[in-house]
Amino acid sequence: MKINTKEHERLQENYSEKKDWLKWGPYLSERQWGTVREDYSANGDAWGYFTHDNARSRTYRWGEDGIAGISDRYCNICFGISLWNGKDSILKERLFGLTGPEGNHGEDVKELYYYLENTPSHSYMKHLYKYPQNEFPYKKIVEENRKRGLHELEYKILDSDAFKNNEYFDVTTEYAKADNEDMLIKITVQNVADKEASVHLLPTLWIRNFWSFVDMEEKPSIKKEHSQSGDFVSIDHIYVGKYNLYFEEADLLFFTENETNDEVLYNKKNNHPYKKDLFHTSLINGDLSLVTAKSEGTKFAPVYKLSFQGGETRTIKLRLSKDRLQDPFGEQFNVVFDKRIAECDHFYDSVTKGSTPERKSIQRQAYSGLLWTKQYYNYEVETWLKGDSEVSIPPVERLSGRNNNWKTLRNHDIMSMPDKWEYPWYASWDSAFHCVSFAKVDPEFAKNQLILFTKEWYMAPNGQIPAYEWSFSDVNPPVQAWAAMQVYKLDKKENGAGDIKFLKQMLNKLALNFTWWVNRLDSNNNNIFEGGFLGLDNIGVFDRSYGVPGNGKLEQVDGTSWMALYCLSMLEMSLEVSLQDDAFEDMAVKYFGHFIFIAEALNKINIDSKGTWDEEEGFFYDKLTLPSGESTPIKVRSIAGLLSMTAVLNIKKEVLSKLPKFERSVNWFKEYRKETFKYPVIQSFVDGEDLLLSLVPQDRLLVLMKSFLDEKEFLSDYGIRSLSKAHEEPYHIRIENIDYSINYEPAESTVHLFGGNSNWRGPIWMPINFLFIQALKEYESHNMGALSFEFPSGSGIKKELSHITNDLSERLIKMFEKDKNGNRPINANHPAKYKDPLFDELILFYEYFDGDNGRGLGASHQTGWTSLVANLIDDIS
Questions:
Q1: What pLDDT digit, counting tens, does each position of 329-345 carry?
Q2: CB count in 10 Å sphere of residue 387
Q3: Three-state SS across 808-857?
Q4: What's the confidence (pLDDT) of residue 786?
Q5: Helices (H), 521-609
Q6: Are 178 and 336 in contact (CB under 8 A)?
Q7: Which is it for strands 788-790 and 798-800: parallel, antiparallel or unpaired?
């Protein structure tokens, strides 16, 4: 049934191009420094070239960053909050954290902030930042993490004294759209401590600097104006137009230019004193003469010197509008806010189906965080390689360095980021998972995002989809087709009709990518794939992204499984389109046949051939073949071997009856493969019944499920682990006189494979668990759903698949729920703090989770793929 709320009406207006509700949104990055785009070094040291300390003084080339910020869709005009507690050595304009080399477990933001509310049109948004009243422990954080090794926990901000005795401010930033180009802003500061405290609040408006890099006909400006209601500033931008920022009476008005301070960074004389870091130096040094003398510039902030009694709260109002307003903060200001908040409530009441108020709250924060992590992303590789100004001319080494073969890539879009601080750049397979959650709240954005990766300015001419900015040529799992079908089905269920045009667009472009995979990653032409990295960072005995020991070839179970899933997803898309356009029936036959060849290759049981299945141990293992021809299995029991279970598709008899050409092909394949003694991967198909295609035949599925559901192996109280707990006893293999090993680790990695901060050696990952659950549901939809399995293995208790999928979902969901003692497992590092009334309803959506206790690990705001927990809540409600 189609839902109709005021928010849905706004989305309809936007996508029918009646009104551009998405021109303004939370598109400002949380970290632009330390990214590949801003790195113009010879050696590709992005973290070292553009540091957090540089960021306040150096102009960015490809974007901007800030706290609780917004911008227009091309990041021309930006707004965010800045703070100073009078004790810090740095004006707090951006979030602080450690880079990969600095942290003992990689990149890590060292701040406390939470995404509380957001609607798809960004008609209402709410963000909470917790700012210490005492000196921020920058030095302590760096030193303590430097001392800690890989076997120790990260040193977090809550491990310091920064929030001792509740001596901090809660800074809540809210946005409400009165219209599509009229943004109301409220910044509420609460002194959480019992004692008096003061803070400088600088709501900051600035213009992204193009003029230092490209020729602009007219430099943009922010100018002080005055009306009957008081001071305001006007913004004039040749690319965006004219706007006005209204603000309540301030103590001071600061102006400067968003330009690099050459004197600070390069010991070169500045052409004028009004540089990007002037707000910082003026406040810290106590000299306000320069910053208050100017009445125009490209960076501006009204300054509020706020003093509080213990527990006191103050609210500052602003308004960013296209219109000239006589009374910007009149009675209608609060009316609009109240209305947008009520509409936000109505929207989430309609789209969240959690069975309890707490589950609805988890869903709401998951979706809100997902929407907050939309970001403007700009990267034109050819321009970046060559440099485009006097200050960004790169060394000649760059032309043969990182991403040099991606000169056609031009990104200039709003994209879903994995985490706007830790991963402020897209990863193609992350984004595919994000879209499955986006489809619940904004299916058009989900579809457009998937299509975007197939555009000619993203996809390489050879059909490869870019992985991520650190290495576009790396190989991410090809989950785009699977995600497209998930989004299509969710959209169809919600709206009653499927978007066939979307499926056709995806099919046409993904066919190119599919061919790239086949041509590039099946070097033996035997339908066993050698994907390399494939996103599964530390799950192997060696780093697969850097080749194979002994110049061998690694035939990967996960690479082959991903390709089988790709085949079935393309087949499912082709069948759905064929029901309306039979010209696509040939495509369905093509992907059906290719799937059979892949399945046969993985399962080979011919007398004269060895596959990747180990009959004795009942598991799929990667196979290493050395140049000598010697072949050996790599007997690591990991989700790489279990991924074979995800490639399954049940084709309903109603579909088959409408596509006779395809049905004839199925029967032909069935008979032909039988005659040539190939493995019959068409599962128990008879005419007039459903057709189940499964990479894992039923007898092997029964064996795999024993390991999958074994608490001594993969089954945790909180989901499916990525490495079997059987490897608490390390696995060793010797390859050409070198010993390689792997052992089960439930939390952070203690080895440096692939950076050491992305760890698959035991933790629970939401997207992979989601794939497993969806696959089991597909088996369940066939008559195999009547099968029962011991759950957990060895318990003597048998359950059908429907009960098992629900139980797995419950295990994942309970990581975010309060237990009987009021603790959420994700908060296991700081349980006492998260029982504080000002913390206990705040939820972070981590990158991955401890395989033994559900503790949150990795990126703390990776709402993207972890927001899939909201889908799970819907599915079992």
A1: 999 999 999 999 999 99
A2: 16
A3: HHHHHHCCCCCCCCCCCHHHCCCCCHHHCCCCCCCCCCCCEECCCCCCEE
A4: 78
A5: 557-578, 585-603
A6: yes
A7: antiparallel
State the pTM of this model: 0.96
How buried is 609 (Cβ within 10 angstroms: 0-12 exposed, 13-18 middle, 19+ buried)? exposed
Q: What average pLDDT does the chain have?
A: 92
User: Residue 104: which of 136, 65, 150 has the closest Cα?
Assistant: 150
CA distance 540 to 635: 10
In whole angstroms, what separates CA 715 from the centre of its chain?
A: 25
What is the 8-class DSSP label of residue 577? Answer: H
What does the DSSP assignment read for 171-234? EEEEEEEEETTEEEEEEEEEE-SSS-EEEEEEEEEEE---TTTS--SS--EEEEEEETTEEEEE
> 642, 730, 648, 654: which is closest to 690 by C-alpha?
654
* Strand, coil or helix: 717: coil
Peptide bond into 792 cis (omega under 30): yes
Alpha-carbon gap, residue 788 to 795, rounded angstroms: 13
Mean pLDDT by 10 residues, the chain (877 residues): 86 97 98 96 93 97 98 98 97 96 88 98 98 97 92 93 96 98 98 98 98 93 93 97 98 98 96 98 97 97 98 98 96 97 98 96 98 98 88 83 95 97 95 98 98 96 95 91 98 92 97 89 60 62 69 79 94 98 94 88 59 87 82 88 94 94 87 59 68 90 96 98 94 85 87 58 91 96 84 95 96 97 96 95 96 95 95 92
Enumerate the β-bridge partners of residue 77: 207
Provide the 10 A C-beta neighbour count for residue 274. Answer: 20
Q: CA-to-CA distance for 783 and 408, rounded, in angstroms?
A: 48
Query: Which of 816, 637, 787, 622 has the alpha carbon at shortest distance from 718?
Result: 816
682-687 contacts: CB < 8 A, separation 24 or more? Answer: 682/596, 683/782, 683/784, 684/783
The rounded distance, in Å, linking the Cα atoms of 159 and 147 is 15
Report the SS3 class of residue 296.
Answer: strand
Give the distance from CA 427 to its chain's centroid. 7
Whether 258 contacts 59, CB under 8 Å: yes
Phi, psi of 391 (to 5 degrees): -95, -5
Give every CB contact of residue 695 below 8 A, 6+ residues apart in sequence: 561, 564, 565, 595, 598, 599, 602, 603, 644, 645, 647, 648, 681
Q: What confidence tens digit (pLDDT) does each residue in 264-290 have?
A: 999 999 999 999 999 999 999 999 999
* Owner of token pair 């965006």: 240
Whole-number Å distance between alpha carbons of 537 and 474: 12
- Report d(CA 95, CA 43) in Å as an integer: 26
Amino acid at 328: P
Q: How far apart are CA 610 and CA 602, in angstroms?
A: 9
Q: How many angstroms separate the CA atoms of 67 and 71, rounded?
A: 12
- DSSP for 413-442? EEEE-SBTTTB-S--HHHHHHHHHHHHHH-
Residue with tokens 């490897």: 727
- Least Cα distance to 448 among 456, 457, 439, 440 occurs for 439
Give the number of C-alpha atoms closer than 13 A to the C-alpha of residue 163, restricted to the C-beta side: 20
One-letter amino acid identity for 792?
P
How is residue 119 written in tokens? 């609607």
User: Tens of pLDDT along 681-691?
Assistant: 566 566 678 99
**Residue 470, pLDDT score:** 93
pLDDT of residue 104: 85
CA angle 238, 242, 246 (to 5 degrees): 140
Angle subtended by helix axes 868-876 and 801-813, to nearest 10: 130
Give, in order, the Cα–Cα distances in Å from 508 to each of 513, 564, 584, 595: 10, 18, 10, 18
Contact 802, 785 (CB under 8 A): yes
Q: Strand ranges (DSSP E) for 409-546?
A: 410-416
Q: Which of 830, 861, 653, 627 is nearest to 735 (CA)?
A: 627
